[in-house]
């Protein structure tokens, strides 16, 4: 189970944290670390703090964008410290680990995304996630070091795995599902297609987009669409684009559509 | 509850670990740190790694022996990594936190004891404890940093305390939501509108509907749309209907739509 989980660190500034993260991961049986646009290097400090978990550092994947890091993942959970102005599905670490344990047997990869030491993840990055995880902290002092947050999540994942191995899984909705989940990359394709279509039909004004796309992302991401559902939705969008008359466009008699 | 708990570190060699432990504790709402015969000092490195949890360091208690540290505690749990030759009551961190949560209301102080970076606690030190706690780790790599072990235990203690104090619901997605859910009648209105629109644009053939509408119902119903989301979707459907040219219909130049 644990090899289907990717720990993603965004824009990390301290190499010691990268090393400590690798150590925490290896202790809990995880091995896949991805750095998105890291500011720190995987240097001597990182290796020293990893304390013999260097193999994880040697196999680290480094990418430029978060989208790239999570494109193949069926479930993406981002760490969130503050409440954001659109509520988003939120779990504690135990629930997040239980969710991962449900999703993995069906073949889905899972990503847990951790933000910058200074300011966590941006709203845009959080909007890419299916759900958020919040580690319960002292309301008067909430400044969890990123490697310690990774430690807590990896511990819960291991606990869930140990529990899993003695239980049968029934997936996130209580029944075995009929299709694999859409990957994050496939969902991105859907949302881009959706946004373009909504602009084309005049429903979304690109000059005043407001919160429409985040709300639609939230709606669809929390239902964890499978690949067939994404295909259906994209088929609908394609048909809408084909059949709409765009404002200001030259009128084209739709001979090809008649009789369909 | 958490102020009845003492974190005890025995013979610590790295001051950074003392600082990181203080930070982990404060994040989780604990405040009482005791050092037994520390080799490291509470120095600049410790203060720096504590990242504004210095008050915990300033209040640290320093004693010469473990017996002194735990003399007033009703429950003493020691961390144990290796199996010892006399089996001893052993718990995982979740069980340890549950035990602490049971014992504290009766007025007992609790101590959680952590050993040396190099070799943990000695057999004699472990024999002073009522029970042992083992953090489940990768059998091929078990080298949890002491501050990370403290982080995990403090997290479980906080989770036990939070569970104790709050049984209130926060809705199905883990956060208070921003709008009330759509009623079943409103969802029915949405699905009928959707079905009609999909027929109008030629995506759904009413003669061979197959499982399209049930699949769409399943997708949307499991995301439990709120009233605003239903309004957005119906607004989209209305705009699609307005902007599409229907198969077989007389061409109507869309003057009203131009410029919108």
UniProtKB/TrEMBL annotation, chains A, B:
It is an enzyme of class 2 (transferase). Residues 5-155 form the tRNA/rRNA methyltransferase SpoU type domain. It comes from the Bacteria. The keyword tRNA processing applies. Its EC number is 2.1.1.200. It is found in: Cytoplasm. Transmembrane segments: none annotated. It catalyses: cytidine(32) in tRNA + S-adenosyl-L-methionine = 2'-O-methylcytidine(32) in tRNA + S-adenosyl-L-homocysteine + H(+); uridine(32) in tRNA + S-adenosyl-L-methionine = 2'-O-methyluridine(32) in tRNA + S-adenosyl-L-homocysteine + H(+). One of its GO terms (biological process) is methylation. Keywords: Cytoplasm, Methyltransferase, S-adenosyl-L-methionine, Transferase, tRNA processing. GO terms for molecular function: tRNA (cytidine(32)/uridine(32)-2'-O)-methyltransferase activity. Homodimer. Catalyzes the formation of 2'O-methylated cytidine (Cm32) or 2'O-methylated uridine (Um32) at position 32 in tRNA. NCBIfam families: PRK15114.1, rRNA_methyl_1. Belongs to the class IV-like SAM-binding methyltransferase superfamily. RNA methyltransferase TrmH family. This is tRNA (cytidine/uridine-2'-O-)-methyltransferase TrmJ. It comes from Thalassolituus marinus.
